[in-house]
Amino acid sequence: MGFLGDFSSVxxxxxQMVLFLIAALASIPLSYFxxxxxxxxxxxxxxxxTGIAMQFFVWNTxxxxxxxxxxxxxxxxxxxxRQYVGWVVLVQTTALAGIYHIHRMIYNYGGWDMTxxxxxxxxxxxxxxxxxxxxxxxxxxxxxSSTALVNLPSLLxxxxxxxCPSQTLGGPGGHISDFLQYINSQNQYAKKVDTWLPAIQKxxxxxxxxxxxxxxxxxxxxxxxxxxxxxxxxxFLRTIYFLIAGLSVKGRYYVVFKLFDAATIASGQALTGFxxxxxxxIWDKMYMIDIYCxxxxxxxxxxxxxxxxxxHLWLKECIHIRLKWNSNIKIIITxxxxxxxxxxxxxxxxxxxxxxxxxxxxxxIYKLFVKYKFLRQPFFYICQGxxxxxxxxxxxxxxxxxxxxxxxxxxxxxxxxxVLHGILFIFVMLTDKKEPTLRLEYKKYIRMKxxxxxxxxxx
Length: 459
Description:
mainly alpha; two-stranded antiparallel sheet; 19 helices; globular; disordered C terminus
């Protein structure tokens, strides 16, 4: 472990995170081999065996709790009334992850170590989808979604979906019905497609970001943000440095997210279909992140939707749309539950509370864009983009700091960001009820030259 220990020191991360990175790299060829297994039953067994082996490599015998979590959720689905399964499994999986979050805080408060809670967080997402799909498949319901499970999957199918090598460490999960279609080579999965080249391309992006992250943390360490050197510098340098620091925080996620995307493509599970003109395969059925969008979009909603997309879909489909309150209250509750899912550090709640306020503020700005056409001029568009990206990086940095004393030192030079959002939020609360609810059709990629492509349409 000498080389790995040195490498972890260079990256400034615990050794277990390096093991996690190795396992994420290994998931690509392991997922690729899966597509060559013809028999569905052997495919299921392969998923269970390789997934358990990968988790054991990173967390050793600590993974026993993942089996408890999986079996408990499965038998809840078998034993209780179907209409309650979604909420009960959501609470069960999130509560168990919360217990382990508290345990980690007790033994390493303020540290970024990687424990088995990573898998429990993944289970909260994947098993919630399973539970809600099973609840939605209740025969008493007249209308059923395309992903609803009329029958409970077998225990082997259920375990294979949880331990599939492309998602056992935290990659795209989603609906178990899609996974079973893949296992049985149905629909778009019936056609054999070469996946190695697009998978390598995705993995290469992750490796590039690993290099970028290594360079940034070597010359501009994150802990400088809560030191005197940062607070004593001028406004311009403080802003530039905190934006670079925000990029380094996001960069370490970009590395793993792109490796997960590569594994999902390598297995073939990411296949949506084929381009009608060229016949080329389209690989966006499930993915972790759209880095271009998160770094260049001027819309906070686009960033939220494209950052850790499986978790976004979980918050949207398993929590947000299931709540019965008004839109702003649903936003705040959803962000609060997202903070609980991440852990119990006060700054998590503060970060997601600011994010919810930012989402409400920028939603209001979008309405103004729709209502007043002069705001679509490039000058206003650029200003909004700058303000949005500074805000997003601020939320990212305070999320990563964990401790309140750090954020107190950091915020001395950037207090204007939360103050400005607070003033805007008060204004929105006082005036938003007078505005009609408007809808924007957001494009996946938003570039400066297409600002006039918004659609003025009342919902």
